[in-house]
């Protein structure tokens, strides 16, 4: 009997210790969750409930009009948020969000986008070349979407399965959004990046939508104009193209005077084109090389001219072993005599500040050509902060690069809000 009592006492003691330990673990977990939530800012597609978030987000009342007016208190709120742990929706969340298309379309307000007759008669095409962060792809599409436009999405064949599933789900929810019929395994500064856009352009030419201009975007771009404003400004081009096209410096000439070969790299990019000692033959057809960027706004007539043109085909083959051929391909072709909307070779350079395609802020030009970056820098390029909202919207360019919700989620929220506000106002005024 005594032995049995001792045994029971030991068992009761073990149970007590176990229960106490379990209680301590639960308390610690609750404290951890409370601290985590307090120090986190959860980003969601605006208008969508928190049902797909694991933890209820701390709510912040941000007045974007005050941010635009550079109100110090409101800008200060955005800076407080930036110091928190920014938690964005992952690719699995986007898969879940877009698995029910009617609910997704309703929750994001696609069905109620304000649209004018002028816009309907001037459809646009988009080429989106992306490889990660499906939540950002979703935001970009929502910001530029109109039901009469057409959208081609090219994802990198190396992208994760979850990202691919999310993007394919997203495209399947719309009749005017599709995945490129031919996909590339894109390598940085390689011909594959140019081919990705060319694949989309070919598909867009074959679509039933008679678009007027095509615009290419990447995963860190965001519009600075409502669709109404963009159409109005594109009409003023009267068939001309909008892109950079400048004479190359001696340093930039090295990119296409020597052959380059892809080599494995032990850092961010898996492979990079490396210059060899082998010089290249002159460009075919006596083409004079100009440089610019990978980004363009091209007329349908120009894209039709490029598609299947023997001169273009030869120039593309010649460019295959150059460094970042997308940064001279379009800039050069737009100078070719006879190309629709061509820029004459004798005309002055068209710089990135003159071309309205993309507003990029380089750190070595801050303070002279534009104000300092209020976000952070990545490889000399500014990732914009909320305090640049007014400057971005008023500078005159059509798209911004770079934006990143992990750097400043409030900037993206306010850009989306202000552009939708402008779209509603202009459509309403235009209907009177």
UniProtKB/TrEMBL annotation:
<dbReference type="InterPro" id="IPR003406">
    <property type="entry name" value="Glyco_trans_14"/>
</dbReference>
<keyword id="KW-0812">Transmembrane</keyword>
<keyword id="KW-0735">Signal-anchor</keyword>
<dbReference type="GO" id="GO:0000139">
    <property type="term" value="C:Golgi membrane"/>
</dbReference>
<dbReference type="Pfam" id="PF02485">
    <property type="entry name" value="Branch"/>
</dbReference>
<comment type="pathway">
    <text>Protein modification; protein glycosylation.</text>
</comment>
<keyword id="KW-0808">Transferase</keyword>
<keyword id="KW-0325">Glycoprotein</keyword>
<keyword id="KW-0472">Membrane</keyword>
<protein>
    <recommendedName>
        <fullName>Beta-1,3-galactosyl-O-glycosyl-glycoprotein beta-1,6-N-acetylglucosaminyltransferase 4</fullName>
    </recommendedName>
</protein>
<comment type="similarity">
    <text>Belongs to the glycosyltransferase 14 family.</text>
</comment>
<keyword id="KW-1133">Transmembrane helix</keyword>
<keyword id="KW-0328">Glycosyltransferase</keyword>
<dbReference type="GO" id="GO:0008375">
    <property type="term" value="F:acetylglucosaminyltransferase activity"/>
</dbReference>
